[in-house]
Automatic annotation (TrEMBL):
<keyword id="KW-0597">Phosphoprotein</keyword>
<feature type="coiled-coil region">
    <location>
        <begin position="154"/>
        <end position="219"/>
    </location>
</feature>
<dbReference type="InterPro" id="IPR003661">
    <property type="entry name" value="HisK_dim/P_dom"/>
</dbReference>
<dbReference type="InterPro" id="IPR011006">
    <property type="entry name" value="CheY-like_superfamily"/>
</dbReference>
<dbReference type="InterPro" id="IPR036890">
    <property type="entry name" value="HATPase_C_sf"/>
</dbReference>
<protein>
    <recommendedName>
        <fullName>histidine kinase</fullName>
        <ecNumber>2.7.13.3</ecNumber>
    </recommendedName>
</protein>
<feature type="modified residue" description="4-aspartylphosphate">
    <location>
        <position position="506"/>
    </location>
</feature>
<feature type="domain" description="Response regulatory">
    <location>
        <begin position="458"/>
        <end position="573"/>
    </location>
</feature>
<dbReference type="InterPro" id="IPR000014">
    <property type="entry name" value="PAS"/>
</dbReference>
<dbReference type="Pfam" id="PF00512">
    <property type="entry name" value="HisKA"/>
</dbReference>
<dbReference type="Pfam" id="PF13188">
    <property type="entry name" value="PAS_8"/>
</dbReference>
<feature type="domain" description="Histidine kinase">
    <location>
        <begin position="223"/>
        <end position="436"/>
    </location>
</feature>
<keyword id="KW-0418">Kinase</keyword>
<dbReference type="InterPro" id="IPR001789">
    <property type="entry name" value="Sig_transdc_resp-reg_receiver"/>
</dbReference>
<dbReference type="InterPro" id="IPR005467">
    <property type="entry name" value="His_kinase_dom"/>
</dbReference>
<dbReference type="InterPro" id="IPR036097">
    <property type="entry name" value="HisK_dim/P_sf"/>
</dbReference>
<dbReference type="Pfam" id="PF00072">
    <property type="entry name" value="Response_reg"/>
</dbReference>
Amino acid sequence: MKKAGDPEGYSVNQLLGLGQQSARKSYYPELTARMAELEAERNRYKWLFENALHGIFQASLGGRLLAANPALAAMLGDADVAATLARCTSLEALFADAEGLDEVSRLLHRQGHLQGHTTWLAGCDGKRVPVALTLLRKPDRGGEILVEGFVADITERERARQELLALNARLEARVRERTQRLEQLNDDLAGEVAERRLIEEQLRAARDLAQEANRSKDRYLAAASHDLLQPLNAARLLVSTLRERALDDDASRLVDSIHLSLEGAEELLTDLLDIARLDQERIQPQRECFPLSQMLCGLVAEYAPRAQRKALRFRCVESSLYVDSDHRLLGRVLRNLLSNACRYTDAGSVLLGVRRRGDVVSIEVHDSGPGIPPDQLRAIFEEYHQLNAERARNRQGVGLGLAIVERICQRLGLAVSVSSTLGRGSSFAVQVPICRPAPALAASPAFAQPDSPLTGRRMLVVDNDSRILMGMQALLEQWGMRCDTAHDFDEVLEQRLAAPDVLLVDLHLDAGETGDRLVEKLRRHWQRPQLPAVVITADRSEAWRRTLAECGIPLLHKPLRPGKLRAVLSQLIARQDRDE
């Protein structure tokens, strides 16, 4: 006999009346339990259906809405499920537009289900509700297709999407606006660039014109300075010769007046040329380590006689230090300071002093002149500034000496200072770095005396200007030297002159001959490669200075200062005597 627990037990139809009466009775308790389980399961699914957070509905795909849960009704804005079922009498009424239902039907027929499909459902009062729809196709029932749908409200997501779209639209609008502004700025910038290029072309053209004007001015200054300084140099030499001769008082006063006038003209021309070259940055420092005594010796020889002529005491502090600077430019600074000291001091003394201050040496010029007012200590370094020069008879020079001092010190990186007391004098100081000489230079020459003996020495002077030759011969013979003169190398050969002790040669001679080449010719002619030589010129270019420095030939500028010439000649002859 079959039992309810057997795999091949009775069917439900047999249990409900189709089997034997006794068999049915034996299965009533188990059937009751099974029915209770089914009821509990149905209640559980009903509770889940009614309390689900997402909307759930059941519908016929081509017909009406069969069931809906409260979540769907709330989502669509209906008062309850009955209102939703009453409003949506067909599935078409559930969708906001027919196109949405057509698309769902097409996809469902093709795929058999939908998952997360976004569409719009029709809410109450005509509102549209964005949803994510999941549909499951149920087995056909009597030719009718049933579907069960699960609906998620994506209103917030849709709102965020719409806001994002709006934000993107605003951003795109701003990008377009910025792009238009940038394009406009680019157009404006292109116009400015074109205008700037035009201005630059005009500036280049103006610069070229200015440079050509400067070159023309330089050529003019070079030619004019040479033509002016040549006769001035001859006059200075002749006057210097007269000043060293015994003259009566009236003649001596006239000669001194002529000397002062020529000296003023020389300083004026020299200052004008130097300030122009400094402004054009044509003066380039050439630093070297040299003994300070070498420079002090030349300064003493040049300015001690000048101070003595004004009855001033001239003193110099000797030094064995070596300094790192440009010998020529530093000498120009100290000459300007000494020149001012001698010029403005009427009684008392002038001191050229040296003080070591750590790694620098302070080279100082003290005078006992009238002094400088405190409010003028800065102004004296300005161009064309002179103290107490309201009246013409008080003016001395053009007031460029200290301006040149300051600019040269700036070029050399040196500090220059001044202190003064009215009625007691002034003191100028230049701070120069100290250096250690190479072993070959360590033996510094003794401090030269201002009056080196030149008596009996033979000098050859070569210049294409007869006035210079006459003045130079008179001056040198006044110093006790034997002086031969010539205009060029051929004239030296014609005179069959013996080798001199020293050569004094002009830089620019006739037929394109230059002093450095002439010195080399004369040294070969007499077979004396170390024959001392000095080149003189009115040309103050840096190129020639470097060329002669490389040749080891001293360079003196016209108009020659007799004191400086005498110091240089004394040093050259003394050096030659030591070498021999």
